[in-house]
Specification:
4-stranded antiparallel sheet; 10-stranded antiparallel sheet; mainly beta
Amino acid sequence: MVNGKTLLHNELGGLVNTYTINNTCPPTGQTLTLMPQLPDGEEDTGQWHWNTGETTRDITVTTDRSYIYRVTYTNAHGIKSQLCFPIATKGDCTPDSLTPSITYNGTTTETDTIDVLYGKTTTLNVTPTAGWGTYKWSTGATTQSITTSAIKKDQDISVTFTNQGGAATTQVFHIHVFMAIPYYIIGETTTDGSEVVVEQGGSVTLGITTPSAVSASNVWWSDGTTGSKTLTLEDVQTGGNYTATFTLGDEEYAFTFSVLVKATATDIQPGNYIIQDIESGRLLTGHGKNQPVTFDEGDITFPTEGQTWFIDTNGTRYAFVNLPDSLGLNTAARLSSTKPFSFYLDSAVGTDRYALRTGITASSTKYWTMNDDGSMLTTNTKLTTFPFSLIPIDNSNGIKNESIHFKESNSMWFDLNGRRQEPSRLTKGLYIKKGKKLLKR
C-alpha cells in the first residue's frame, strides 16, 4: 500500500523494455505497507518470517534505501514458499558520469572549457554513461545539447542529468570570450599567437581576427598603418612591438605582437652566468649528481648554491657546468660528472634573450623551455620564443670569474653574515674577502 492506495503487484521502481520507470520510485522517507497475498481458499497459518525479522503477515517499512524485502510462508503441510518485494528508492543508485563536449567553428572537442571570439556561438553537449534520463540546463533547456546565443562575456553554463534511478550529476561549462584573436603568417603557415620568431631578413604578416562588428577600416596599427586587420613586415632585421587597436562599443582594445629576430650567429664568451627564465624570473638550479635540474626561486644579485653556471664553448657548441660541484649538464637535463659540449644557443637580435637547444640536424633539434612546475621541457621541435636570459656574474654584487679558484691563506675570510672564518675550516660555499664575494669549491 502506497499513500493509501493498494497496488496489485510487488515491485516499485521496476523498468520495462522502453527503458522508462514502470512504477514511480518512492522518495526517501516514504512509508509503505507490504501485504503478501495467499491463493483463494488457502488458510493463513500465521507462519510468516521476513528477512527483516518481523513475523507478521503485513509489515510497514520506510524507504530509506533500495532493498528487496523477502517473506517466507509455511503452509499447513509444512511447505515453505517465498515472495519478494523489490523496492527501488529514488536516488539510491550510482550517478552517471558525464562526458562533456563543445562544438565551436565546426570542430567538436571533448572538453568543458572553450575560448570563443566575441559574438560567436557554441554547442554544448553531455553524454551520460547510461544514456537514459532527463536534462535540465541553467538556461532552462531540457535537451541533451544546446546551442548558445551570441556570447559577449565570460560565463558558466551548467546542466544536471538525472538518471532513471533519480541520481543527479551536474556538469559545468566554462566559456571565455576573446575580443580578438591574434595570429601571424610565416610562409604558408598560419599560427595563433602574438609572440613571433622571424629569421633575420625574413618576412611575417601579423593579423587579428575580430568580431564581425569590427570592420577593417576601424583597425589601426602602432606604425601608422590603418584600415587593415593585417600588417606585413618585409626584410625584418631587428625585433620590435607592433600593436593593433580597435574600438567596439565604447571600449578600446589593443593587441600587441612581440616580434623577435633570430640572429645569424650567437657568440657567448666562456664565463660564469646565471640562467634565468624570463617569464617566471626563476633561476636554473642544479641539485647534485644524476639529479634533474629545475628552475627555482632566486636572486640574480645573490644566487644560492647550484644557481651559478660556467658556460664553456667549443666552436658553436656549449657546455654548462654547475658550480660549485663542477657537474656538467647533459641532454637528459640532469647533472653528471662529464661536461658534454652538446648544446647550442640561439639569440634574438638586439636583446639579451636566448634559446637553448640540442640536436645536430634539423630533424633532431629540440628546444628547451620551462614547464609550469619548474622542470625542464626538452621536446619542443620548433623555435617559438627565446625564453632565457644569460646574466654574466662580473659585477661587484656577483662572483668574479677569476675568483672561482683560490688557495687558502692567512687572509681574513667572512661568511655572508659578516662572521670571520678560519681559512683551514672553510667548506664549500660563498664567502667575502677584501669586499668581494668568492666561491669556495
